[in-house]
């Protein structure tokens, strides 16, 4: 699993012919996948959050710095008591929401407790399980009391769903997208074009572009065509094939940004035949991760690992190599009662252009182990609602998160986004104890997943 | 047949079709590479001595995949077309002969079926039963036989009042015998031309389904699928898309030229067609 | 003649009714229903029963059909199983987009086809005719996704003249579809022009060889006048049916073209609804599209009847 780099192609220079008036040049356009279809929302805590928009219109308390370390956002500084059970955050003063209301500690308390409330049913709730209470001693101070010692709380607060919203805006936030971010929402249209205007009062100063457009294009091929035709200005996460094309295009520039984003194939451990650990192991042993990486994203397009979701830049990453072992996979399948091989269905979609490619490579690689993969093409529109976590074997993608967030979100049995249906009380207990250790040693999960790129 | 070959369009058309059939039949023994072998090193290689038509996004040989890419389409449509013409033709002739209430009811059903777009009918079947050849053959044969009913019925009505049919009726021949002995020889020409047209529509539908991701499943090579995979990369690897484009287009053009020439040779007018 | 027209209208309505029953019970016969589509893996036991009761799916199929068709007549097609929005609204927005695409293609394609049809007929078997007729065969036979792909590559990626992909959402104002709509219009125009052109050419040739035109020529009527006043009107009649079928084809949703250009029309909606098994939407869509097909063909028949006195009497006798 893994990956290390996402590639972004940016429109560097406009052709002389396409030289647009100054006003038009200051619009920056990008796409999003409409992966949640009709459930798309501007509520950052909801399942259907369109993060390509919320990241621009809202602020967190603490943001991930470019070095991956916690950096100030709406909280200017933070400190913990000696055993890291109580955290105090000093909030930035003079910050205003887009409607002019001042941002205060009251808003911060409401925003966090809302995510913690089971009724909100936010996928981010599992992250905040360590927090016992949130209080505002005064208008610029936030006090978080934890259930136990936890040194990495600032990292948890960098999560992209823990945005600061105006108090009591729960009913409307999904449509208004009211925040303190550098852009404000002019029009929200998930399936079409969402337009954002620069927020002149942004606390770090007016942003460099006057407007942004976030355009819903479910199909990866259409997104790529839009980039080539100059209809969008940026497209992240290019596969090797697209990269080869962009490299030769005089109109585009390729940027490489190291990330902890990864893509993989996930098999549901609570559904047949993947409920048998031997089958899951065989599915993992049969794949040649390096060859897959080379073909899907290129030799320098990412790294392969042993199915750890932890970013290579994270201090808690455990290195490991999982070499291809066809004979071993065959043996395990035979033990599991499939001496003549096994037929599985894998759902792929053009949510990402590289998914069908990964699917086809996997199909070809594992056939030698007697694993016959049938690729099922699913519509990209609404993929995360209809296919992911529902079909037994699907493609997945996770953006970088701190180790604690990643492990708790993907594998804790009660997590909303436990995509593999992994359920191991011993592992949950390990996660709990890890949180109590300030310098925890990383638990080595043995799980159902195999992934790549 | 001779009349057909005398027309240049007929000769070219037949030659194209024959070439495609020959390649499809012989492909498994004559292709230069393994159609499924993937290779990172070979991604988008331009045509060279080892790969005459270059390679695709997974480093697979385009020539090999293009030669194999029509097999499923040809197999399925070559079985489904005669089936469609057979059942549609028989029913059409029967209705033309029988007339009356049965004819009225049947033709309303035909109208109703024709009023639904092909993709809706096909997809409902595919989503339910899958896209294996054993599903596609009967499904295509059924839906593409429906318009044949109309053609056969109209052609039958043209001959049904003629002396020999009346005479056969008078002699007390059964309907089946009249259809086979008296009507069929007279509507055969129309059915042949109609069959050729149905074949080309079916091929188009088949590859459109593959192109949309509902037909042939990877890794089986298929033209529609190959075009869908490679169309974004025309700028750097035109061979990957153009080879299957040329193959698919030449087959469909071949069938159409043949049908055209056939219609002209038989004195039928087949200019009145609408897109499907 | 009025009797014939009435008969045709009644038959048309009958066909629509037949389609509605056909599609309702065919979809009904498929495994799964709106509830299994919504609940997915949770679709069993009490939850499934509750859902079915709520949605009225536990009533007999015939009663539900009568309800559905009654609603359809009043313009209410129930709600989508996936989004919960009224189907009339969902289909309406996409129908408008499809109508725009079809309308523009017709506006360009029909006059072009008539002109080229006449030109090819007059230049029969000469260079212009051979070139155009061959081009027509190519345009009819080359799959739409091939033409569309080549057009995007040429005009959008390579030359950069027009944007290649439609970025508007289904319910965006019509103006949002410009200028991206021109490439899909071009693809559809090519296909339909080819079909109509061939019809016009062939009937034009028939008419020009007919006694009536020969007579006019002998009388010394100028060539352009023969074509314009005498030949063209009679040659157009057979074209009406082909044009009608073409309209029906356009309204049925040109799925492949919509897919390639990301166009928010009926065709893509149809494919998505079927793959998502949003069965109420599939039923509603099928009914709308089938009615359009029947309606357009009916209109063409009546038009032909109106224009052609011979047909009037001939059909009456038949």
Write down the Rg of chain C.
24 Å
* Low-pLDDT windows of residues of chain C: 314-318
Strands of the widest sheet of chain A, in order across it, are 2-11-10-9
Q: Structural class given helices, strands, pairing of chain A?
A: alpha+beta
Helix/strand/pairing category of chain C: mainly alpha
Total individual domains of chain A: 2
Largest sheet of chain C, in brief, is: none
Q: Quick one: CATH class of the largest domain in chain A?
A: Alpha Beta
Number of helices of chain C: 14
Biggest beta sheet summary of chain A? 4 strands, mixed
At the third CATH level, what is the topology name of the largest domain in chain A? Dipeptide-binding Protein, domain 3
Ranges of chain A where pLDDT stays below 50 over 5 or more residues in a row are 1-24, 439-453
Reported CATH architecture of the largest domain in chain A: Roll
Shape of chain A: globular
Report the mean per-residue pLDDT of chain C as an integer: 84
**Percent range for helical residues of chain C?**
over 70%
Intertermini distance of chain C: 12 Å
Report the strand count of chain A. 18
Measured by residues with Cβ under 8 Å of the partner chain's Cβ, the largest interface is: B-C, 43 and 60 residues
Structure explained in plain terms:
- In chain A, helix 8 runs antiparallel to helix 10 and helix 13 packs antiparallel against helix 14.
- The model of chain A is unreliable at 1-24 and 439-453 (pLDDT under 50).
- In chain A, strands 2-11-10-9 form a four-stranded mixed beta sheet. A four-stranded antiparallel beta sheet of chain A has the order 5-6-8-7, with helices on one face.
- The longest helix of chain A is centred in the C-terminal third of the chain and has 13 residues, at 354-366.
- In chain A, 25% of the residues lie in helices and 23% in strands.
- In chain A, a hairpin with a 2-residue loop joins strand 7 and strand 8.
- Chain A has two domains: 9-14 and 260-436, Dipeptide-binding Protein, Domain 3 (Dipeptide-binding Protein, domain 3, Roll), CATH 3.10.105; 34-175, Dipeptide-binding Protein, Domain 1 (Dipeptide-binding Protein, domain 1).
- Chain A is of the alpha+beta class.
- Chain B is an all-alpha fold and 276 residues long.
- Chain B is built from eleven helices and no strands.
- Chain B has helices at 2-6, 8-30, 62-68, 71-98, 100-114, 118-129, 133-160, 163-170, 175-212, 223-230, 238-265.
- In chain B, helix 9 runs parallel beside helix 10 (223-230) and helix 9 runs antiparallel to helix 11.
- Chain B is elongated.
- Chain C has 318 residues and is mainly α.
- Chain C is built from 14 helices and no strands.
- In chain C, helix 5 packs across helix 8 (182-209) and helix 6 (127-141) crosses helix 8.
- The longest helix of chain C has 36 residues, at 87-122.
- The radius of gyration of chain C is 24 Å and the shape is flat.
- Chain C starts with a helix and ends with a helix.
- The interface between B and C is large, with 43 and 60 residues.
